Amino acid sequence: MEKLQKTLDEIKYLVAKFTATGKCKKIKIMEVCGTHTMSIARYGLAQLLPPEIDLISGPGCPVCVTPSKEIDNIIGIIRKYKLTVFTFGDIIKVPGTFSSLSAEKMSGAEIRICYSPSDSIIFAEQNPGKKVMFIAIGFETTIPLTSVIIKDALKKKLKNFFVFSTHRIIPPALDALLSDKNVQVNGLLLPGHVSAIIGLEPYGFITSKYNIPAVISGFGPDDILISIKMILEQLASGRPVIENSYTGVVKNDGNPYAFSMINDVFAPVDSEWRGLGIIPLSGMALKDKYSVFDARKSFPVKVSSLPEPAGCECGEILKGIKTPTGCKLFAVSCRPDNPVGPCMVSSEGTCAAYFKYLRRK
Amino acid sequence: MEPLNIKSSKAAGHSKYTDNSTGSHGDSISISHGDGGFKTGELIEKTISRFIKNSILDNFEDSATLLFGKHKVAFTTDSYVIDPVFFPGGDIGRLSICGTVNDLATAGAVPKYLSLSFILEEGFPLVSLEKIMGSVRKTLVEAGTDLIIVTGDTKVVSKGSADKIYINTSGIGIIDEKVCLSPSRIASGDRIILTGSVADHGMAVLSARKEFDFKTGLKSDCAPLNKLMAECLLCSNNIHAARDATRGGIARALIELARSSGHDFHINENSIPVKKEARALCDFLGMDPLYIANEGKMAIFVSECDAVKVLDKIRKNKYGKDASIIGTVEKKGKGNIILETGLGTKRILDLYYSEQLPRIC
């Protein structure tokens, strides 16, 4: 507690010093990662910070940034080709425009929640008569795991195993976000786990192009406060750099082995993000060498999506322009048991965090 | 019987997209109706209890209190569908005795007679059933020499129509005329005692599931607490209410009592014991230990004057060694729970709105 109080005192001092320069009244710090959002809400960190600091949430929840059309596409494939589907729990409740995986499961589709991607490949091996599709989701943290099972599938010459990749990577999204004139950010808390894979180098543009301080942070309350302090120190000095406060886990050059696994199996392609639109080279598609496992190529479908639900502000929330309480649907028609937008579905979504920890009755 | 949490629901609009099902035509049961959270309450309120209303049921206590002349009798029933059937620290046999015994104990009753009914799936090994019965006998002996099973039933269904074994037990207990435990007796200033660490059961069961490959030393806390309760009642006349913190965890137990007593509670998160391993596993899976099921933990409400005496008594029982005073009952209010985090920040503790873990008890 003493250490924490010391950090808070330093934060107060730095905020006073910075705001005294008259450059800005509010300091907006965006946490990019959903796990940070959850931790900030759970520990009530905003209550400890000076009122000049605004913590805003960014696009760092893979479920939240997956557009409804992509869910529609997956459902189209499941309906047409009757596959056995494996995926992580969070995505099954995300509404597409006409159904959700959870609704499909209730009407009889074989959808299994797994905790490790390798469950899907083991099942495919044991059930050669069934076609198995793994819905791969996540940023750089989970892409190496998907890469491993795809390489394994090639080695085992599996004919009944497929991957639907919704993988996306973080740096191009940050670039797109910071280039948006509506987005005003004074500092970035960078995701710990993603950085453990990619290291510091891919973030270089944040300082060189946008002149914004950025610190890679761990997930405990003290980790986050120390990283905020480091951002403020950079603001005060006027010399933004990419810093790493999560040195126990993140090495400056990341995890070159995991990175090489990704590069062997996946290649970046243009990809649509909810709220952010199409971002060049931000999605990850299977390379040609592995295309026999690519569900998007193996199971073509034509799906006509319905219009997005009216009033859902997930897009603006993902850019940090709006907060959940600024959305008319929040806690009224959009709740965790009946989510309208993905920010309410994902356990790391900004709206779910607000609903669970910050809502006032 | 499941206690209810009634709250107005404005959910609408997207019911056809998600697994929302509040009883209207075409909707169906989803797994989250069984999680002990918001949707369980909604199901009971809207689809079940409205057909069978009466003044005893409408109290929605863990046990119904029945009057036979001057004699007070507690009556309860519970079904057990846990997966896996054998788990670290217990099995479905031990669980089905402890759960019902503890429901009687929270009413201040001395458990006397139980029923035991099985639904068995074709193919379930007899040797497993014998093992479960051995466990039933051992748990009965532990709970009390005069506790006996006086009636039962056995049904078998064809393979695939049920998963291995489901058990139902009902129980009858005698309440001493001087004893009256009820949420309505909870008063300002009462101390809230928790009898030990939370989340052990849920996390132990989870780590024993085949889809996980976790090696932990965690064991379920599954235990009969009737003797612990009897010791408390013997040492103090100022025990006002008790609730076992099963499905939905300590959070749900507290929320229910806050709402039904109409008092606000102040809870110190730091004083809620959580084993290091359970916390680590929760963090890893993005779960909150306060919402994870226990099968051998109770929250006991006692006047301030007797709190330390009762706490000492509980700590002498082998199932109460880690007991702790976790909070205080505040003035009459809306029935909110204010959770003070380890950092001194405050937030509202609310019902979890979507499933954490199915088939945990």
Molecular structure report:
The complex is a heterodimer of chains A (361) and B (361). Chain A is an alpha/beta fold. Chain A folds into 3 domains: 2-59 and 170-244, 3-Layer(aba) Sandwich (Rossmann fold); 65-169 and 254-298, 3-Layer(aba) Sandwich (Rossmann fold); 313-358, no CATH class. Chain A is built from 16 helices and 11 strands. Chain A has helices spanning 2-20, 34-42, 62-65, 68-81, 101-106, 118-126, 143-155, 170-179, 192-198, 204-208, 221-237, 256-265, 295-298, 314-318, 342-345, 350-358, and strands spanning 27-33, 53-60, 84-87, 110-113, 132-136, 161-165, 187-190, 214-216, 242-244, 266-273, 277-286. Chain A has a 5-stranded parallel β-sheet. In chain A, helix 1 (2-20) runs parallel beside helix 11 and helix 7 (143-155) crosses helix 12. The relative contact order of chain A is 0.16. The model of chain A has no long low-confidence stretch (mean pLDDT 92). With 361 residues, chain B is of the alpha+beta class. Chain B folds into 3 domains: 1-56, no CATH class; 57-175, 60s Ribosomal Protein L30, Chain: A (2-Layer Sandwich); 183-348, PurM-like C-terminal domain (Phosphoribosyl-aminoimidazole Synthetase, Chain A, domain 2, Alpha-Beta Complex). Helices cover 27% and strands 25% of the residues of chain B. Chain B has 8 helices and 14 strands. Chain B has helices spanning 38-48, 92-106, 126-143, 200-208, 226-235, 249-261, 276-285, 304-316; strands spanning 64-68, 71-80, 86-87, 90-91, 109-121, 148-157, 165-175, 191-194, 239-244, 263-268, 298-302, 324-332, 337-340, 346-348. Chain B has a 7-stranded mixed β-sheet. Chain B has a 5-stranded mixed β-sheet with strand order 1-2-7-5-6, covered by helices on one side. In chain B, strands 3-4 form a two-stranded antiparallel sheet. In chain B, a hairpin with a 2-residue loop joins strand 1 (64-68) and strand 2. In chain B, helix 2 (92-106) runs parallel beside helix 3 and helix 5 crosses helix 8. Classes of the chains: A alpha/beta (361), B alpha+beta (361). At the A-B interface, helix 2, helix 5 and helix 16 of A face strand 14 of B.
